[in-house]
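Worked problem 6 (solution included).
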Amino acid sequence: MPGTMRRAVNPVASRALLFGREWLRAPRAVGAVAPSSRALARAITDGLSNADAPVLELGPGTGVFTRALLARGIAVNRIAAIEANARFAAALAGALPGLQVIAGDAARLRRLTPFGPASAGTVICGLPLLTIPKPKILRIVAGGFAALRPGGAFRLFTYGPTCPVPGTLLGRLGLVAQRTAFIAGNIPPASVYVLRRSEDGL
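Solution. The predicted structure is:
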């Protein structure tokens, strides 16, 4: 009707609604009952700057970690977000112009990265690794380290009590893991881990 005022769209509420719909559609694929909190996003991006770019983000979902990366001063064109969920990918591309959003499976990271081999400074993994089979975890992590330059780090989080990348896989890939944060206020509570090549140390 003419003269009717439209309500302003709350972007946070809109992202939460999208998350809820996708969780109802495929809860195992989404892997969480709520979007990651800002506290978790700050913890997983702690200490990062544009010097740690390019950044590959795996499973950005509604973009909580992506926005934290931007808040750290990392240029939008130095981030590539790889998202298997077409609805999440489309929403993220629409919300953050200039962001490279690649629709695809992170297990194919070697083929999907736009930065080339051994050139990324950081991988941020938002994938629900606890629900992913070990062979696929191996492909994801191996692909991430193939994309990372020497000294680069693979950051991830988990709701479990230990690193979600099994010790056997870490050993096979020559990696070490360190827990760097615990966020009790996240839903559910989450731990952040950083993986590095053994020769790089922690």
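Discussion: The helical segments are 11-25, 27-30, 38-44, 64-71, 86-95, 109-112, 134-147, 167-173.
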